[in-house]
Amino acid sequence: MLLEGNISVKAALLSPYRKVNKILIDIKKRGKDSGFIIFKAKEQNVPIEYLSREEIDSLASGKTHGGLLAEVEERTYQDITDVIDDTFIAYVEGIEDPFNFGYIIRSLYAAGCTCIITNERNWSNAATTVTKASAGANEYMKHITTTAVEKTIKDLQNLGFNIIAAARDDTAIEMYDYDFTNKVCICIGGEKRGLSKDILEQSNQHVYIPYNTDFKNALNAVAATTILSFEVVRQRRVSHP
């Protein structure tokens, strides 16, 4: 598969979770960014192939590659034992659009989230889009996939994680009233179906984002993820300035 553009290619070279087989670069490409990519590729003994812009265009899925492509393997995935020492992770359900998935990963990573958990799905066909939309963050985060939601939640709780579901219901409290300074896994569902029954019933707490108006509709998953994840940041900065 191919990753496209400076940010995605650089992220793949710096990622501990993906093998880069070859770098394809516009023969006329110059600049600091391409220089760094060439340096890292040589450092890792990754072959570099110089092509014309027309050849690059014919291989790429779009026109925003900037003359840089990376031929890569599918990324590796992690398991529950890899998050024993983590303190902020996220479970994301029901996100089908690769752009939205990438935007969610970008927000989570920027807020210090170290792992994203999803129900099993083959994202490899959308790797180019997800990596680009996440501004490379997809390459830096651990990613666990599961077919057993209930078991995964129990395993996380056994590791000391509080499972916090974003849900507006009778049991939910405002996010400002929850203590996010402990080990947490925030759970976000897609706009269509929300979170699954397994997560909602097993979670330690439901929280909601309070509005400043009487608006009744839900925020989209990207916005909700961003707000919740940076509430984690805010609380942890206050408790450990």
Features of this protein?
2 domains, alpha/beta, 8 helices, single chain, Alpha/beta knot, 60s Ribosomal Protein L30, Chain: A, 11 strands, 241 residues, 34% helix
Unreliable sequence segments: none
Based on secondary structure, the structural category is alpha/beta
Instruction: Give Rg in angstroms.
Output: 20 Å
Order of helices and strands: EHEHEHEEHEHEHEEEHEH
The overall number of domains is 2
Which second-level CATH architecture of the largest domain applies? 3-Layer(aba) Sandwich
Principal-axes geometry comes out as elongated
Main sheet attributes: strand count, strand direction, barrel closure: 7 strands, parallel
Strand fraction: 15-25%
Q: How widely separated are the two ends?
A: 43 Å
Number of strands: 11
What is the percent of helical residues?
25-40%
Question: How are the strands of the biggest sheet laid out side by side?
Answer: 7-6-5-10-8-11-9
Q: Any idea of the CATH class of the largest domain?
A: Alpha Beta
> What value does the average pLDDT take?
92
**Oligomerization state:** single chain
- Contiguous helical run count: 8
CATH homologous superfamily classification of the largest domain: SPOUT methyltransferase, trefoil knot domain
- At the third CATH level, what is the topology name of the largest domain? Alpha/beta knot
